[in-house]
Amino acid sequence: MKISEKTINILKNFSNINGSILVRPGNVLKTVGTQRSIYATAIVEEDFPQQFAIYELSKFLGVLSLFQDHDINFGEHQLSITSGNQVVNYTYADISAIIAPPEDKKIIVDPAEIEFMINQYDFHKVLKAASILQVPNIAVFGDGNVIKVSAINSKNPTSDTFSIEVGTTDKIFNMVFRVEYLVKLFPLSYNIKINSKGISSFSDNNIEYFIMTEAESKFNS
Q: In what order do the strands lie in the sheet with 207-212?
């Protein structure tokens, strides 16, 4: 089988969340951060025939980049990547060495008391503002009228801030995220859902990220 450029880009993105990955049979890739505060899932074009583990995902992607065209065959203990007269045999990692989401785990966000869309431009702009202002948090703030996404320092109310209005709400809340988690996401437009328990999802077509909000987050219905 071949791994498409789109799937390679997903794997590159996932390597920023967790340097290892456990691939299970089928067309869904999943990963979880080592602190288990960010979880991601993607539906891909490929249908992987068996379970296998890669300990150094960036190394594996580097090996794939050696080939302009490739074909992968999956063995019991290793996979082989071939192209013409070239071949790489790549040994699987021990599954016990991988931090991976449980196979049957499903993260439930609904019912989500907060839901809105943020376009790619605004998502990029608020992250860029956080970098320029050197603040560690992004907050989703609702005052009973509008929803704003802001670059802030949640522990310093007098710090510099940047805000973008993204929707309307009849609820009051201040849900806080770490910038270091959000910069791991693809720079896309997202449908964002957040529930009052602090579980959020950022989804776009075939990819979805689940991120926990910080302890200082507040929700008042």
A: 26-32, 38-48, 207-212, 199-204, 190-194, 114-118
Model confidence at 105, in pLDDT bands (50, 70, 90)?
confident
Whether omega before 136 lies within 30 degrees of 0, making that bond cis, reads no
pTM for the model = 0.95
pLDDT of 49-67, one tens digit each? Answer: 999 999 999 999 999 999 9
For the chain, the structural domain boundaries read 5-97, 114-220
* DSSP reduced 3-state for 131: helix
The reply to whether 5-97 and 114-220 are identical in fold is yes
Looking at the domain 5-97, which fold is it?
Answer: Proliferating Cell Nuclear Antigen (3.70.10)
Of the candidates 203, 202, 198, 201, the one whose C-alpha atom is nearest the C-alpha of residue 213 is 198
Q: Which residues pair with 190 in a beta bridge?
A: 118
Cβ(189)–Cβ(119) under 8 Å?
yes
Residues β-bridged to residue 200: 194, 211
CA 11 to chain centre: 11
Dist CA 56 CA 71 (whole Å): 20
CATH number of 114-220: 3.70.10.10
- The pLDDT assigned to 68 comes to 87
pLDDT one-digit tens code per residue, 119-156: 999 999 999 999 999 999 999 999 999 999 999 999 99
